[in-house]
Each structure stands twice: as structure tokens, then as C-alpha cells.
Amino acid sequence: MERPTIIEVARRGAGLTQAELARRGGTTQSAVSMYERRRKVPMLDVAERLMQAAGADLGMVTTVVWEVDFLPGLKAFWYPDRLWRVEVPGCFDTVRMPDLVGHTEQGEWDLRDRTDRRGLYENLLVEGDQHMIMRWVDGALLVVAWSELVLPEKIRAAWEPAVAAASAGRGHGVFDA
Questions:
Q1: Which DSSP state fits 122?
Q2: pTM of the model as a whole
Q3: Using one digit for the tens of pLDDT, what is the confidence trace for 148-168?
Q4: How many helices (H) and strands (E) does the chain have?
Q5: According to the 3-state scheme, what is the secondary structure of 71-131?
Q6: How far apart are CA 61 and CA 21, in angstroms?
């Protein structure tokens, strides 16, 4: 059995028939059927229109390449080639985790609070892995806080090209609407 197309997934997720999606998307039911059976490939504008008619979109995901480096004492840290966006409300979550830099017990970091956000970002850039960093560090919010972050020099230098590119508008789409 073949995987469903994204148009079919969006249509079914919206609870629409092929005829209803076609009507909303300005095409015919037979065209939708052909797209779903992979007999015909829609042009990008048509696919986008059908996805929007089903309440979805053809979103793009920023591909981030990660590198690892080491601080003295062989402490690993991760840094990216570009920044990304964390969707709202995730970029304003309350995160429960220890202060890894200050070596304290479980704490709460309210990412709506600038001071807490700065503290968590410092922790994650020094002690977090790439998955933790991508989950909670938002590129735009990082750029805003960058000059205030207290980071080891080697970590700041590793992150600087991505932060500089994003803040100069060369962030590979990170701030595109």
C-alpha cells in the first residue's frame, strides 16, 4: 500500500471529501483524485491552495547542521551553522530542569521572563545537547539577548557566525515571514 500524499493527509485531517476540497480549492474532484493517486503532480501553487483549503500549509523547516567542540577538560558543547525559530507558544514555555551551569537543583525557567530566558539560554548553550537547544532556544530571541549572555569565550566564538548572520538578515530564512 502506498503512503498517502500530503494533500490526502490534509484533506482527511480536515474531514473533507475530495469534492469538498476541490470546491474550496478551486479545482475539480477528479484532479484531487489524480493528485491523491499520484497519477498527476500538482503545480506548487495548486498544492499550496489545496493545502490551505484543508486548513494546512506547506511549511518549510530550517535544516540546521550541528558541530561539536570541546572546552578545556574535554567538556563537549554544540553549535549550529544557522539559527531557527521555535514556534509560539514553545518559545515561551516554562522549562523545568536543573541549573547545569550553577550546579543547583531542579528549577523553573519561565521563557516569558527575559532574565529566566537568558539564564536558560546560557545553560543550554554551555551544557545542553543540540536537541535541547533546538527545543527551547529561539533564534530571534537569542539575537536579542546575545550581548547579555555570559558564555565561555570559545562557545561565544563558535556561535557568533550564526548569530551575526541572523542579525544581519543573512539567517537563511530564519526571520522570513
A1: H
A2: 0.68
A3: 999 999 999 999 999 999 988
A4: 8, 4
A5: ECCCEEEEEECCCCCCCCCHHHCEEEEECCCCCCCEEEEECCCHHHHHHHHHHHHHHCCHH
A6: 25
